[in-house]
Design a protein that fits this description.
Length: about 130
């Protein structure tokens, strides 16, 4: 049985990645097994359909410290071993600076891609520059 094509755009389901909400404050570097198991379960259950991405909401982690860095590094390692990746949602500026300081790179939600200028930024033109 076949149906004639419908006019207009095709109906597409939006693929939203699953979200892992991380709560804090973390007091010990040993509090990683629970979140890692939850991440692995999300990747096994539905993360493959959204490109293997799980969004980690880090707004509730509290002050940034080495326990937070350890947790995020282990979550990233767990995701990569399972064939996926994580994306951070709502990281504090202090956490971003600390992750940059220790050399860990994470994809942030709402962050422009590399080589893509942020919206509203215009390049300045010096007087006397030839127009190309």
């Amino acid at each position: 049985m076949s149906y004639p094509p419908s006019p207009g755009l095709p109906i597409v389901d939006a693929m939203t990645p699953p979200v892992l909400v991380l709560a804090g404050p973390l007091v010990s570097r040993d509090e990683v097994s629970g979140p890692c198991d939850a991440l692995r379960a999300l990747l096994d259950a539905g993360g493959g359909g959204s490109g293997g991405v799980v969004v980690c909401d880090v707004a509730g982690l509290g002050p940034a410290g080495l326990a937070t860095v350890n947790l995020l590094a282990r979550l990233q390692l767990t995701a990569r071993r399972a064939g996926g990746r994580i994306r951070l949602r709502d990281p504090s500026p202090a956490l971003c600076v600390l992750l940059d300081l220790v050399g860990l790179r994470f994809e942030m939600e709402g962050q422009p891609e590399q080589r893509e200028p942020p919206l509203g930024v215009e390049e300045a033109v010096e007087p006397g520059d030839p127009a190309v």
